[in-house]
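Title: Prediction job returns without error message
Component: structure pipeline
Severity: low
Priority: P3
Assignee: unassigned

Description:
Job completed but the reporter wants confirmation the result is attached to the right record. Sequence as submitted:
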Amino acid sequence: MRLRWVAFVPCLIWFLLTLFPIYWTVVTAFKTPPAVFNGPTYLPWIDFTPSLDGLREVLGGERGDVVRPLVNSTLIALTATTIATLLGAMAAYALVRFTFRVHLTAGIGFALVGIAVFVGLDLLGLGETPRMGIAFIVALLASILVNRLPLRDKILGNNDIAFWFVSQRMFPPIVSAFALYLLYARLGRDGIAMLDTFWGMVLAYTAFVLPITVWLLRDFFQSLPVEVEEAALVDDVPRWRIFLGIVLPMARPGVIATFLIALGFVWNEFLFALILTSSRWQTMPIMIAGQNSVRGTEWWSISGAALVAILPMVVVTVFLARLMRSGLALGGRK
């Protein structure tokens, strides 16, 4: 019993420390300017009298339009996270159940052929956007052909491919964001609008969060019993039906947990939204960052905007947590 208390007390302290910033944001959203600037106050109706002025300023549009960024964040985050989770689930399942052998020469050949084709098409006067598309397709086909050759070089297996996915998160975000901005600007000059567009942000965030979904779901799929899939294969069930009808339902708690983690990353992301949007598709982090005014830092309005940004994530988390618990219970009964 004493050991339980030894473990419980540090966990309780840590829980209170992590909960305090959220509590502080909530109470500050209901404070008046004197309650903010006249020293710290902690308890409503005891230290200060709550007021709805901060929320009224935010929701009433006095501090800028909050509805449009909220809708933008919701649409972009849900779409990008759904796509990334589906693609990540397929990639993670393939890395767990199939054996891959990729020649290092094939990867090097992909880069060299892509560069050579891109430069060669430039000499023919072809535009940049068509050159990029043709160079990618030709380089991909060439690397597939090279990978089929009986070469004696380094072989990259499943673990190397999984590490490659994770390595995409090792780059400084500013590098990826700046490169995407240049790519989107180039596409825009060729008539393909990507900057400050819905699909431009969705594609950027899908690429941003895809490595996380692959890495997390790979561990979930590894824990599933392979005997169920083998029995289905004996009955001549196609692989795609096994994946959709057996694997995904069995891994539902893991898929939902991965979806929530990825959604949190996308919802709170600031740098890509700052660089790739200007007005139409700005998200909530950009809106909150722009709450400072010539009158100074008005924390009651900033906290009100932050509260508006937090609530949708809380609702989604509560709803999906119920599905995750029901999936765990169903798995236990099975």
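Comment from assignee: result matches the submitted record. Residues 328-334 have pLDDT under 50 and may be disordered.
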